């Protein structure tokens, strides 16, 4: 039987925290209107990565936790569109 190659939930959570910190740095408290197009693009890509990490963590987070976090990230990405 083949061993799973998926990272552990703990390492995925660590990566998610790292991505969230980087996202906060990228946005830097600037109003959305003041962000450069390249910055908006990078931010949307980072949100996309976070949402994919959430899907991997879905079981560990539980359905409610996953749905709440996913909805928040989707709303954030939509506000940047």
Task: Write a short abstract of this structure.
This protein has 81 residues and is mainly alpha-helical. The protein has helices spanning 9-27, 37-61, 63-80. It is 77% helix and 0% strand.
Any descriptors?
mainly alpha; elongated; 3 helices; 81 residues
Structural class label: mainly alpha
Major sheet characteristics: none
Number of helices: 3
Helical content, roughly?
Answer: over 70%
Low-confidence stretches: none
SS elements, strand count: 0
Shape: elongated
- Nearest-integer average pLDDT: 83
Q: Would you list the SSEs in sequence order as H and E?
A: HHH
- Beta-strand proportion: under 5%
**Alpha carbon gyration radius:** 14 Å
Terminal Cα span:
45 Å
3D architecture notes:
The chain has helices at 9-27, 37-61, 63-80. The protein is mainly α. The longest helix has 25 residues, at 37-61. The radius of gyration is 14 Å and the shape is elongated. The mean pLDDT is 83.
Fold topology:
Layout: H1 9-27, H2 37-61, H3 63-80
Helix pairs in contact: 1-2, 2-3
């Amino acid at each position: 039987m083949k061993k799973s190659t998926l990272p552990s939930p703990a390492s995925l959570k660590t990566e998610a925290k790292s991505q969230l910190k980087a996202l906060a740095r990228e946005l830097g408290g600037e109003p959305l209107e003041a962000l450069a197009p390249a910055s908006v693009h990078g931010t949307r890509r980072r949100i996309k990565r976070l949402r994919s990490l959430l899907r991997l963590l879905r079981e560990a987070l539980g359905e409610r936790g996953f749905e709440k976090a996913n909805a928040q990230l989707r709303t954030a990405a939509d506000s940047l569109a």
